[in-house]
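Chapter summary example.
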Amino acid sequence: MFSHIFVGVTDFDRAMAFYRPVMAALGIAQRFVDPSRPWAGWQSSPDPRPLFLIGRPFEGTHAPGNGPMTAFAASSRAQVDAVHAAALAHGGHCDGPPGLRPEYHANYYGAYFRDPDGNKLCVAFHGAVDA
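The structure predicted for these 131 residues follows.
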C-alpha cells in the first residue's frame, strides 16, 4: 500500500539517537544514512518497501501535525513493551503506555509515544497471544 513514510525532524543527530534504538527494538534494518542531506531510512523485510524515512523537511521547517501518526506493527506484546521502553529511554515522551485497548478490537495491544520533535508514533500487536 505504501511506498514510504517520511517524518520530519529538526535535529538530525538527536533524531538518530532516538530512532536507531527504536527501530532496532522493532527488528527493522537501517537501509541508509546521509548526515550531509540529512536523512536516513529503514527498510521493510523481506520486501524493499515500504521505507520509513526521517530527515529535514524539503521546505526547511518542521512542526509536528495534530492528527498524523505513524504506527509500527510489532510481532508480540513483549516487543510493544520493548519498543515503548526504548523510545522513552532515548528522548521520547509517553502518549499512552503499553496495554490492551479493546475499544479498537479485543486483541489490540499498543503503546503510543512521541519522538523528540513531537511526532506521534505507535507500536501495536494485533494477535490474541504473543507469537
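To summarize the output: Helices lie at 12-26, 77-89.
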